[in-house]
Design a protein that fits this description.
Layout: H1 12-21, E1 25-29, H2 33-41, E2 46-49, H3 53-56, H4 68-79, E3 86-90, H5 100-114, E4 118-120, H6 128-136, E5 141-146, H7 152-155, H8 165-181, E6 185-189, H9 193-202, E7 207-210, E8 218-221, H10 223-226, H11 244-260
Parallel strand pairs: 1-2, 1-8, 2-3, 3-4, 4-5, 5-6, 6-7, 7-8
Length: about 270
């Protein structure tokens, strides 16, 4: 979509400047054209095409089943809607782990076929080689530490990460690695607020928290959770700004009633 003449696109540089000025970064997920258009229009800085699409769009229990092709489909739909926000796409499980060549190939496909602006990957030192390879191709990379949902079967639970000292130390060193090799930002998911604050002051790049307290450079939520399209998921960090599940259900129920009673369509609603 063409950029409006008066719209200044958000870039990785914009986010860096926001951190330096102490301006908070607002990030939300989107997976389709209609939602992305609203989210972008509302002034969100970064749109994440998350592998959470596996849960909220496809109904899977984890993020693991979603494929690279499916991520590209969602990303391309979002990119077509966006005029301002930076669009970041999750590299799905299996598209980068353990093979830096595959990581690069996956990233190039995302950039070429969707038109997105950056990719996001879960992990620290263990995926260093993959990140460096992607960065060397000129593709911006956002890191993701703390609770890494793609590793759910390793951890066995979605509880808060890095409460123990050893894991906290490792997270700090992973953050330093991501910072030093050139990631443009780091998502911190479900870690103690004090630790997130420590990471944030210790790295040069913006940190985006989800369940990581207020002392990070920005926040991210899954849009379906934030507007209450989902009902089952209510972690402590989630603030619901709307309760659309109930509103939409009521509207659909009214439609069904009106159709059955022949109230819809009325005289004015026909030709």
């Amino acid at each position: 979509m063409s950029v409006h003449s008066n719209t200044k696109r958000v870039t990785t540089q914009t986010l860096q400047e926001m951190k330096m000025k102490g301006e908070k970064i607002a990030m939300l997920t989107s997976y389709d054209y209609s939602m992305a258009r609203i989210v972008d229009d509302a002034g969100v800085d970064v749109i994440l095409v998350g592998d959470s699409a596996s849960n909220v769009m496809a109904g899977h229990e984890t993020t693991l089943p979603i494929t690279l092709d499916q991520m590209i489909y969602h990303a391309a739909s979002v990119v077509r809607a966006v005029n301002r926000a930076l669009v970041v796409v999750d590299l799905p499980f299996g598209a980068y782990q353990g093979n830096s060549k595959e990581a690069l190939t996956s990233s190039i496909r995302i950039m070429k076929e969707s038109g997105a602006h950056a990719v996001k990957m879960e992990g620290g030192a263990e995926i260093r080689e993959s990140i460096e390879r992607i960065l060397s191709a000129g593709i911006p990379v956002m890191g993701h530490l703390g609770l890494t949902p793609q590793s759910i079967y390793k951890f066995g639970t979605y509880t808060v990460r890095a409460k123990e000292e050893a894991e906290a130390e490792r997270l700090l060193s992973d953050a330093a690695v991501l910072n030093d090799i050139g990631c443009f930002g780091i998502v911190l998911e479900k870690i103690p607020a004090k630790l997130a604050a420590k990471v944030t002051s210790g790295v040069d790049v913006p940190t985006i928290g989800i369940g990581a307290g207020a002392d990070v450079d920005g926040q991210v939520l899954v849009v379906h959770d934030m507007i209450g399209l989902t009902r089952e998921f209510s972690p402590r960090f989630l603030r619901r700004y709307l309760h659309l599940y109930e509103d939409i259900k009521a509207a659909v129920g009214q439609y069904v009633t009106d159709v059955r009673s022949a109230d819809f369509p009325n005289e004015k609603e026909q030709y």
